[in-house]
Design a protein that fits this description.
six-stranded antiparallel sheet, five-stranded parallel sheet, binds flavin-adenine dinucleotide, binds iron/sulfur cluster
């Protein structure tokens, strides 16, 4: 049996969940397809062993790397997508990120829209995702009004570090965070199991809580869980999509609609388009440019822990400060290095995954004396970094990180800062070429159909009723967390659909 809706949204993460919420206000009959299920609210949500050793919530799927070796990507298929597990650091891109910027390894390309175009949608996205922060301290903050909520206060230990950072001549600023009513009854309890964990009490601003659940309150929105889009089907001309084939409860069902939003995340959206090749689109759907799946980016990210044997770290919620002094240029270089942010507390189990032979008690003693940071730099779009689909349907990710020099310089600079804070030792770890947490860029937007797959409203140049609204559209990765930008663009695209009566 074929079912019919007015709009089909595929994926329920930052892009899809926000789209669903925005379009739920219309009278359109909306179907959200999500390949995973709801993450249950259970004790394991906050159990480091369940999350990090048993990988309870991570997909079992295997992808192949450039060499053809199988690996289990650090990604999550469930209602809310990866936002369920994010650290909820919700940054606006810097104004310069929308412009062409010279980096050491090449130019980070301009976006087809400027900061001012997205600013009103950032404001709405910040309200939707309850963002907390403070304007004034961040030297790279783009022009903006106040945050909807006060920043999360620093713990005593982090407040001391912030003061010492200022004494070093740096400009530490409150990290913009999406946590709901911290400290209030039923609100966020500011625990130490936030980043990479699901929030057991639904106090994290993520796409299930802020997007899907409110959308489902409306009678016109339907969610199918465990429903995986397998193939998009066009009319004979190839100009319009007519249906999607969905694998659900062991069977394939066809669902028709006049409008489609693909929001499966940067890797899976590209894979779905490639798998939907047909006579009119032999290289993959909407792929006349040849760019679908190419220009994969994921940020260069290094976790860093400052360790001092005689200083116990009493902070529970640690992730409250950022340093953007080197975002636009380094102390010794006229090109950008990137962004530094405090991270959630490391748990012994997390460290033991990296070097398993050291006993857990030793790690626990270690991490109790550590303060955690993340150094993050921009990687540049390259057509050689790409997602493809193997003949057996498996995803292949070829990713050779570039722009490494500035990242090394940023890590070195962060190490210097931490040593000046008195830490004896700085431990570092990076996911390298299997980094998928900040995946983006595989279905990029732009004005020129030869150089982009989507137009500036994320509509496919080649297929008039197909929109791709997730991290895929990024022409460059910038060096702050991507989530708020995905949500802001989703709100912009939804407005565009409503204004043009597409919905
Ligand atoms: C541990 C972790 C921490 C992070 N921390 C931050 C942070 O602090 N701040 C930040 O901004 N970003 C953070 N990120 C990144 C952020 O989560 C992603 O950038 C964001 O979720 C991407 O949104 P998306 O809509 O592109 O994809 P996703 O949110 O991943 O959503 C894609 C959805 O599509 C579904 N799907 C995929 N294929 C199909 C299919 N064929 N059919 C049906 N459904 C499908 C998936 O199951 C998923 O629900 C973090 C990521 C991780 C993993
Ligand atoms: S209670 Fe707050 S800090 Fe803990 S997981 Fe939920 S949102 Fe994160």
């Amino acid at each position: 049996m074929t079912e019919h809706y007015d709009i089909i949204i595929i994926g329920s993460g930052a892009g899809g969940g926000t789209m669903a919420r925005a379009l739920s206000e219309t009278s359109a009959r909306i179907l959200v397809l999500e390949r995973g299920d709801f993450v249950p609210q259970e004790a394991e949500n906050w159990d480091p062993d369940a999350v990090w050793r048993q990988l309870r919530y991570q997909t079992n799927e295997e992808w192949l790397d450039a060499a053809g070796r199988a690996f289990r990507p650090y990604t999550h298929y469930n209602v809310g997508g990866n936002t369920k597990f994010w650290g909820s650091v919700l940054y606006r891109l810097r104004r310069e990120d929308f412009q062409a910027v010279q980096h050491l390894d090449g130019v980070s390309p301009a976006w087809p829209i400027d900061y001012e175009t997205l600013a009103p949608y950032y404001e709405r996205a910040e309200r939707l995702y309850h963002v907390r922060g403070e304007v004034g301290d961040d030297p790279t903050e783009p022009p903006r009004g106040p945050y909807p909520h006060e920043p999360v206060p620093h713990s005593t230990g982090m407040a001391e570090i912030v003061e010492q950072l200022r004494q070093q001549g740096l400009h530490p600023s409150p990290l913009p965070l999406g946590v709901i009513r911290p400290g209030e009854p039923d609100g966020c309890v500011l625990c130490n199991t936030c980043n990479s964990f699901a929030c057991k009490i639904h106090a994290k601003s993520e796409a299930e809580v802020c997007g899907i659940r409110p959308a489902l309150q409306r009678p016109n929105v339907t969610l199918w869980t465990n429903a995986r889009a397998r193939r998009l089907v066009t009319d004979p001309s190839g100009r319009r999509l007519v249906a999607v084939d969905v694998e659900r409860n062991g069977a394939t069902v066809r669902v028709e609609a006049p409008l489609f939003v693909v929001a499966c995340g940067a890797v899976n959206s590209a894979a779905l388009l490639l798998q939907s090749a047909n006579d009119r689109h032999p290289g993959g759907l909407a792929n006349a440019s040849g760019l679908v799946g190419k220009r994969y980016m994921a940020h260069l990210a290094t976790m860093m822990e400052g360790f001092h044997p005689f200083r116990r770290n009493a902070t529970v919620f640690q992730k409250t400060v950022a340093i953007n002094d080197f975002y636009l240029r380094g102390p010794k270089a006229d090109y950008p290095l990137g962004h530094i942010q405090a991270q959630g507390r490391t748990h012994g189990v997390m460290a033991q995954i990296v070097v398993p032979w050291i006993p857990l008690w030793a790690y626990e003693a270690w991490v109790a004396r550590g303060v955690d940071w993340l150094a993050m730099s921009e990687d540049l779009p390259s057509v050689d970094n790409r997602v493809t689909v193997e003949p057996d349907g498996r995803i292949r990710l070829r990713y050779q990180p570039n722009n490494l020099g500035p990242h090394r310089a940023l890590v070195k600079e962060t190490e210097r800062i931490l040593k000046r804070l008195g830490f004896w030792l700085v431990v570092k770890h990076s996911h390298g070429s299997r980094n998928t947490t900040h995946q983006c860029g595989t279905v990029c937007f732009g004005t020129d159909p030869r150089q982009s797959v989507l137009d500036p409203f994320c509509r496919a140049h080649d297929v008039e009723n197909l929109f791709v609204v997730d991290a895929s559209f990024f022409p460059s990765s910038a060096a702050v967390n991507p989530g708020l930008t995905i949500a802001a663009q989703a709100l912009r695209v939804a407005d565009h659909m409503i204004e043009h009566d597409l919905s």
